Amino acid sequence: MSLTFPVRVCRPEARPAAQDQLAWKLAELAAAARPVDPAAADLAAWRLIDNMAVAVASLNRAPVAAARAQALCFPRAGGARVIGLPPAVQVDCTWAAMANATAVRELDFHDSYFALDSSHPADCIMPLLAVAQQVGRSGADLVRGIVTAYEVQTALVRALPLQAHRIDHVAHLGPAVAAGLGAMLHLPVAVIYEAVNLAAHLSLSTRQIRKGRISTWKAAAPGHIGKTAIEAVDRAMRGESAPSPIYEGDYGILAVLLKGQGGEVTLPAPDQPCRAILDTLPKAHSAGYHGQAIIDLALRLHGLVGDVGDVVSVQLYTKRMTHMVMGSGSGDPDKWDPAASRETLDHSAPFQFARALVDGWWHHDRSYDPVRIADPAFVTFWRKVQTVEDAGWNRRFDAALPLDKAHGARAVIQLAGGRIIEQELAVADSHPRGAAPWGGEDYRAKFRTLSEGLVSPAAGEAFLAAADGLMGLSAVALADLGIEADLMPIVPGPAGLFEQVRG
């Protein structure tokens, strides 16, 4: 059974009591002593493995090294671990959250969720783990926090669309992390309420983060929001208040940023487990989720086309979100620019289709090799790939249930001489409805593949064994959970503010 309640803008004289506000409902969700669903607990552990896999693969990339360098300016005995560094290196949990979440997000290679909007719910995991390590929580506490954060973020994504108003989806991440921390730390409702209000207030940013020239901040943004949510919880625990009602107020999120649009929020009843994590989707490829099925479709078509020089045009008929965010509807010439940043290319469906079709494989690093991307023959073919918004695909994506949505495209390839190749794929192979739905062994295989050459096999298997048994880990074992990796020497950039000393 679930509970549904409306969220609307209120007039100042009709301000709802705290107990009737969305932030309070989310706090009640977090504070309830609800059972843990075994399947949800298993997936929480697998998503931790997934996070660590993609984090390790990104450790030697400059944005991740920069975030790690910032974190090392805040050492703390008994703090949290930083991915890639020895267990003895510990930093304040806020900065561990920032560094580790940046490593996770850098390759755009972890989970996604779609309802009225999109999100990456696994962005919550590293902030929760960092706090759990610093304050001595168990694996069971961490799982409770993870499934709660997933429940909150997915509920907000189902009810309150942000993208239509050009607000970035991390606006839903902050309150989710705050609620997850409240659940993990067993905080009272009133404290979680203040933390959720403040985290929601401080998590807002524009959608420009994913538009035009996409910068390295795309990787850092979730860690920054997680860090902000940790600080919001700390402040609330000290008895401080936060702006409210943050959602319903006449100057609040609905009124100002969503132009007065409300929504219907659905949460599980107090005696029901948090199971929304089961509706979220894994990534088999390092690209924005809208490209997952498109890459799989291109891989199917590899070998059928022959010489791509004979291609006259490629049209990808797809849903509006793909067309606008990752395709021709964005109006961004960057999506066909061989000099574009990796962050831009992992949000370019034309690039992903062209690269996968030409190569017949996809790799988180080699597929983005600037030398190969700049090849004139490839660029010529790539620029023939366009997306087209299709009403039929919109209807298939607008299915009420998240797992019923179609994410893919129909490719129509016209060749010289008039021959046409046409094929479609509704969902990625790794999707629960796909050709090869992912389970625990797929996440473990992803970790082994991405950590090869960076983590010793023994250390990798020890981590997998601990993560697989996450629900049973003691506080001591959880505090030690992490990975030491072989880091390349990074040519240091300019010193930041935190390295400055009084002169």
From TrEMBL:
PANTHER family: 2-METHYLCITRATE DEHYDRATASE, 2-METHYLCITRATE DEHYDRATASE-RELATED
Domain MmgE/PrpD C-terminal: 285-464
Record-annotated MmgE/PrpD N-terminal domain positions: 26-261
Signal peptide feature range: none
SUPFAM superfamilies: 2-methylcitrate dehydratase PrpD
Protein's name in the database: MmgE/PrpD family protein
Similarity field: Belongs to the PrpD family.
